[in-house]
Structure formats: C-alpha cells, structure tokens
C-alpha cells in the first residue's frame, strides 16, 4: 500500500499480463490487456475471469471496497 512507481519503470507488454489479487500467483482473476506509462501516471485496462473470486473482486471495486490490484 502506498507504493510509488516512477515513470518508465513499467515497460508496455507485448502480450496480456496476469491480473492477480494481492500479488498471489494462485489468485489469478483476469488479464491486463493494456498497460501505458502516461505523463499523468500508469494506465491499465483489463478483463476479469468468469470465476466466483473474480466476480467478487469486481464487485468490491465497483462498490469502492477495494481500490487496487497487482500488476
């Protein structure tokens, strides 16, 4: 929590990257499809898996009970 990623630290990926819950490899909840290092910060876009866990995480994000995911 509170990590700062400096501009240029993330290189755009050639393919999709796994979206993890709390950096746990066994909690794959989707894929990041776009990663852009913009002047105003890191922009990511992804899709959630069709699993119970992923649907729950998506719901927590939509209700603002969770405000971040692992990249």
What is the element layout, followed by pairings?
Elements: E1 17-21, E2 24-38, E3 41-48, H1 52-62
Antiparallel strand pairs: 1-2, 2-3
Radius of gyration: 12 Å
Strand content: 35-45%
Strand order of the largest sheet: 1-2-3
Number of helices: 1
The helix-and-strand class reads: alpha+beta
Which spans have pLDDT < 50 for at least 5 consecutive residues?
Answer: none
Shape category: globular
In angstroms, what separates the terminal alpha carbons?
13 Å
State mean pLDDT (0 to 100 scale).
Answer: 85
Give the ordered list of helices and strands: EEEH
Largest sheet: 3 strands, antiparallel
In which range does the helix fraction lie? 10-25%
Number of strands: 3
What can be said about this structure in brief?
With 71 residues, the chain is an alpha+beta fold. The protein contains one helix and three strands.
Describe this entry's structure for a reader:
- The protein has 71 residues and is of the alpha+beta class.
- It is built from one helix and three strands, in the order βββα.
- Strands 1-2-3 form a three-stranded antiparallel sheet.
- β1 (17-21) and β2 (24-38) form a beta hairpin.
- The mean pLDDT is 85.
List keywords for this structure.
1 helix; globular; single chain; 71 residues; 3-stranded antiparallel beta sheet; alpha+beta
């Amino acid at each position: 929590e509170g990590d700062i990623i400096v501009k240029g630290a993330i290189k755009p990926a050639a393919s999709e990257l796994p979206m993890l819950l709390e950096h746990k490899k066994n909690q794959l909840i989707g894929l990041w499809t776009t990663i852009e290092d913009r002047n105003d910060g890191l922009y990511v876009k992804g899709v959630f898996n069709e699993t119970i866990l992923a649907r729950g995480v998506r719901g927590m994000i939509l209700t603002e009970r969770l405000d971040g995911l692992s990249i």
